[in-house]
């Protein structure tokens, strides 16, 4: 006869009590997860989170109260949990999991690791650490009403990086600088402008008209000529935006007229751009400022939130001037070489982007957006609620119990839908897939091929954009397989600093070269094969062979893939903030088909599902897949 | 019904509810703000539902429970402090429940729901029952149905859980749908709008009304057909156990309770001329006590259904949700609706 401890068989209850687990993240999923763990009998729990508590967390991160705003999430989570479960033994770390202190030995201490993260970089890193330590990892994510849980076990299942994930959306420079067609283009431009004026200037974040725009040229030589006549990359001035602004003392009228009148007038001279597009209409400060305030606006009662109002043109201009002045003063206060970092929760930063983006939207004949909406897009805010996180955290613990029972083969990927699928399932369990033999992380000898122009790509770019950003390394060491073992990049600070600004070709790297890249902390070695290529698209510095081409904007008719919703906050889109990089929502494919190992779905159902997916062209800007509910016998009255 | 919304949301609310307003919209949030909910039974599932509704920002939540705290409950319920001087489950949960969101009026009531007058229920916009007997649930559902009060029930038995909803004869809600962009608009979201397209950035609200789409619990539970899911039979067995023994199966009584469960299963299925294979013997291993993660899952789904019904935003699930924590499957089934 079986003995039960609570709901659990005695052996399982004992395994639970004696296990040691690591929870990475103490936010939306993390709070719910900690609660579930202690109530299920887990005792030894380590929790790590680098973040502090914000008021916008309080609608779901229930271990925190208003009085805790500003304090460490990991620390307060621990304290709150101990109040209802004092016997739990919790260690809290207010730190980043990517800190080298948390090495493979650290991870080996745990029976299993559970991620409750909101960004891909950390997920990649923990994935590798768990592979290196051979510890099971439970991965999860939520976004809005959708969520997903999956189990990763080395050699048994796919790792987090076995399937390529869609990369962050980027827009071509000329779309941002010359021919915006959607509000997001204007918002990205405004964020670039912030950095150009007040923050870290980045060559990839130019805001002035791009004279080298291939679309603008009637004859191909013309574009080349224009480009040659200006700075590299077609800037029409040789002075940096920040220096120019400083030289005028950040005079708001001068700034306004340059950005919203003179630069627009210049764009108009590139007449080919406007043959099929509506031409932009420049603004003049004096004209805008002297617009009579529209009385009729005052008659509308404020129904929505204050931030949900859409400003009129004059108010935008005034807001622009005001925020520029505030930011200028702040910058001056900080001193000579100061830089500001854009933060969506900082009102003047947010006001600046709202105003600048809206002015540009007006110029390019787009409907203006409220600050509320701009904040969503600029700050890459993922809407979040308590219940989704509660469900996902419950599912995580159920998977953990299977692992502790020694029945990893019963583990599943589980998707949470918004509405039941045609088979009535709201929660869809799917069998786990075996590892991808060609995975560039968990294969026995990971290898990858990358196309680039070795005459142009800098060592710095290889390190930052390719090895770190694309391939998730934190501290790469790179050796050229040239028979001499030449060290190209060393993770030790300062050692190879001198190489950074040199092109790869200067080290003898050419077509067919192989680079051995190691991340010591992650215990990860990647062999990078170089294919020299001179005709990559403009703005594209490298291409990984085997990846889908990185075109932007990506409309989501991509193949359905298993992806964990990142559920992150505060990222840039594309990234313009050098503060903690966090990425946007990934697709949660809640219509995932089980692998052929599971026999309970017949082929007709699969075709039916694929049909539904293809019809599902309605992709929202937040890039979440919304399940179409089964038709109901009801009356439909459409509003408006 | 739901009180007329105040037209202005405070700065404090806007800041705290920001991430959910961005999901379900300001109107939905205002409706929540005007809603009063009765929650019966403050064990593991009740605590989860309470948390979810309080965080969502309802106007008021009354936690009603006449039972005392037991050691088992302190293990599975996170609102009750270990050193609580309160003996009653509802009162012991009150302080931590209120801390979750000071903007909600949270109350505790230690009376037995059986003894409440009909009038008592009329002050609520939604009623959610946990830990109640079958007959009691049926009776209160009938009352709610009569007065257009949204009715919910749910329970967790070990690895299994269920929810039920009766939203009445008529339920109105809105849904967000993508907007079709007309070609002739002068100012649109871009200078290129020359042909109609589905604009992923623009959506519109579509109103829907569900008529006679729910049934009362009485009809739902008298619906024993061969093709209903196993979980439904399991629910019938467990509700019968609860009626007969006045409690749920207890781990410390595992041998005798398992035997009784098997017997009830035979009775329930035999009486319908159904084979006991529909609910194999091992079911007894998985339905004791309330599993915390299962409370979290079921409480999350149930909480969200209540939020949807009160806010009148998005299609409700009809009318049962069954969760099997071993398989990880969560199924919505419509039973008893003609």
UniProtKB/TrEMBL annotation, chain A:
| Span of domain SUMO-activating enzyme subunit 2 C-terminal | 547-635
Q: Where are the transmembrane segments?
A: none
**Pfam families, per this entry?**
ThiF, UAE_UbL, UBA2_C
Record keyword ATP-binding present: yes
CDD domains referenced in this protein's UniProt entry, alphabetically: Uba2_SUMO
The GO biological-process annotations, alphabetized, read as: protein sumoylation
Asked whether the UniProt record includes Kinase among its keywords, one would answer: no
Keyword terms of this UniProt record: ATP-binding, Metal-binding, Nucleotide-binding, Nucleus, Transferase, Ubl conjugation, Ubl conjugation pathway, Zinc
User: For binding ATP, which residues are annotated in this chain's numbering?
Assistant: 25-30, 49, 57-60, 73, 96-97, 118-123
Gene3D superfamilies registered for this protein in UniProt: Ubiquitin activating enzymes (Uba3). Chain: B, domain 2, Ubiquitin-activating enzyme E1, inactive adenylation domain, subdomain 1, Ubiquitin-like 2 activating enzyme e1b. Chain: B, domain 3
**Any idea of its EC number?**
2.3.2.-
Q: Where does Zn(2+) bind?
A: 159, 162, 439, 442
Give cross-link positions for Glycyl lysine isopeptide (Lys-Gly) (interchain with G-Cter in SUMO): 191, 258, 622
User: Where do the segments described as Disordered lie?
Assistant: 204-234, 544-640
Q: Which PROSITE patterns match?
A: UBIQUITIN_ACTIVAT_2
Question: Bias category Acidic residues: which stretches?
Answer: 204-222, 582-594, 630-640
- Pathway, per UniProt? Protein modification; protein sumoylation
UniProt subcellular location: Nucleus
Quaternary data: Heterodimer of SAE1 and UBA2/SAE2. The heterodimer corresponds to the two domains that are encoded on a single polypeptide chain in ubiquitin-activating enzyme E1. Interacts with UBE2I.
- Family indicated by similarity: Belongs to the ubiquitin-activating E1 family.
What PANTHER family is this protein classified in? SUMO-ACTIVATING ENZYME SUBUNIT 2, UBIQUITIN-ACTIVATING ENZYME E1
Query: What does this gene product do?
Result: The heterodimer acts as an E1 ligase for SUMO1, SUMO2, SUMO3, and probably SUMO4. It mediates ATP-dependent activation of SUMO proteins followed by formation of a thioester bond between a SUMO protein and a conserved active site cysteine residue on UBA2/SAE2.
This chain's protein is named SUMO-activating enzyme subunit 2
From TrEMBL, chain B:
**GO biological process: one example:** protein sumoylation
Record localization = Nucleus
Keyword vocabulary terms for this entry: Ligase, Nucleus, Ubl conjugation pathway
Name the major location: nucleus
Pathway-wise, it operates in: Protein modification; protein sumoylation
InterPro entries, alphabetized: ThiF/MoeB/HesA, ThiF_NAD_FAD-bd, Ubiquitin-activating_enz, UBQ/SUMO-activ_enz_E1-like
Q: Which SUPFAM superfamilies match?
A: Activating enzymes of the ubiquitin-like proteins (SSF69572)
Q: Name one GO cellular component term.
A: cytoplasm
Q: Which family does it belong to?
A: Belongs to the ubiquitin-activating E1 family.
**The protein's name in its UniProt record:** SUMO-activating enzyme subunit 1
Species of provenance: Erpetoichthys calabaricus (Rope fish)
